[in-house]
Amino acid sequence: MQPVALQSLSELERASLQELALFWLQERLLVGHLSLDRDGSKGIKSIRQKLESFSKERKDCSPHTFGVPLPQVIANDRACRQLQEAVGKSRRLCLEVEATVTRFRAQRQRRLGTGTSCIRAPDGGFPEEPLSPALLDKSSWSQRRGAMSVDSITDLSDNTSELLEALQLSHPHELDPRRSRGKKKPLSLNPISWQVPRIVDRCCTHLEAHGLHTVGIFRVGSSKKRVQQLREEFDQGLDVFLDEHQSVHDVAALLKEFLRDMPDPLIPRELYSAFLSTATMEGPAQLDTLQLLLFLLPPCHSDTLLRLLRFLGEVARHAESSWDPEGRQIPGNKMTASNLATVFGPNILQKEKPGEKDAGALNFEDSAAIILVLQRLIEHHHSLFMVSPEMQCDVLRRLFQTDPDVIEYLLRRKFPDVPSPEHEDPGEDPAPSALPGWTRSMERGSVSSELYSNVSFLNLDVGI
What we know:
Elements: E1 4-5, H1 11-27, H2 47-52, H3 70-114, H4 138-144, H5 158-169, H6 198-210, H7 224-235, H8 248-261, H9 272-277, H10 283-295, H11 299-317, E2 322-323, E3 329-330, H12 337-348, H13 364-379, H14 381-384, E4 386-387, H15 389-402, H16 407-414, H17 448-453
Antiparallel strand pairs: 1-4, 2-3
C-alpha cells in the first residue's frame, strides 16, 4: 500500500478519516474543548455540524462570488457552467436546424430549376436526400430525447460520464457525512469531485503563467478601478477570461480580496487556536499535527486551500534570482514563503469575523504564530495532503467496524491485482498475499467478502 492523495479517497473514507483525526487530536488535548455534540438550550451547533456542513440554505440563488460562503460560491459556479453548457447546446441545435433548412431549400431550388416535379429519382427509386428538414446529427438527437439513467454511466462517453458524476458528487449539500446517521442512503464510495472556486483557480493559473517573475507580487499596488470591474464581472456570474493583457497586480489584488471577504475563512475559526498551537512544536510532531488538523477541513475548504498552497509554493520557488541557459539573469520575485505567509496569513487564519469587535487587533504572539504556521503549510503542502499507508489501514479498520459491507469494494480498488477466490485455480498453490496479514485458511468456494473479512489487520481495534 502506497501513500495516496487525500482527494483520491472516497467520500465515505474521508468522513471516516475525519472522525479518526478528531479522535487523535482530542487524545493530544489539542482540540479538547471541541466535541462532536454540544448540548445547550440555545441549539449551539456541534463541531461536526460546523466543519462538515458543506452548504447553507440561501433564498437568493443568483450568481455571486464575493462575500458568500465557499460552498455557495462553488454551487454558483456550477450553476453558471451548466447554464453556459445549455446555451451552447441550444446554439448548436439552432445551427444544425438552420443548416438543414438551407440544404433543403437549395435542393428544392435545383429541382424547380430543372422542372422536375416527380419526387422519384431518375433511376426510378426514391432520392437519398430528404425532402423535408431533418437534423443532420441523428445520433446526437437520439441522445437528447428522454431521460438517461445514471446506472448506465459506464456506457456513456467520457464527457457525459464526467458531467453526471459531477452532478452526483459535487453538490456541497450531497456531501454531508451526516447522511449516514439515521438515513438509509450511504455515503458515496467514489472520490469527491475537485471543489475549487472558479475565481481562485483562474487567478492562480494566470499568476502562475504571467506573474512568477514579477518583483513584489502581492505587495505592489493595483488599479482599484480595474479590480472593481473584475470583481463585478465575477459577481455577475460572467465567464471571466484572464489573459496576458490583465495586470498581474490587479489579479493578485482580486485574489486577496476574495479571501479577505470570505465570511468563513479557509481554515474554520473553531480550529484557530489548534492551528496556532502547532507554532510551538518542532519537527515531525508539528507536521503530524498540522496534517490531522487539515483532515478536519470540509472538502471544499481542503481543496481550495491545497490549490492556493500549491500556487504559493510555486511563487516562493521563484523568489530568488536565477539564470537562463544563455547566462542572462532572471530576477526573482522576492516573495519567500515567509513573506507570502505574512500577506495571506491574516486572511486564512482568522480569530474573529470581519467587522466584529477586536477583529483586526492581533497581538504580536498571534501574528508571529500565524506567519509560522502558514509558512509550514506552504513549505510542506506536498506531504500534508497525503494519506499514509498506516492511516489508510486505520480508516479501513474503522470502516470494518461501522460499514463492513463496503470493505470488499474498497480493498479491491486498493489492490486490483489480488485475485478473488472464484477466479483462482484450485490446482495452483496460493501465491503470497499482497495484503498485509492476509490469511487463506478458508474453504475453497467461499465468497469474496468472507475472504476479505479474514484480512487480519482489519480485525484490529482502531481504538475509537
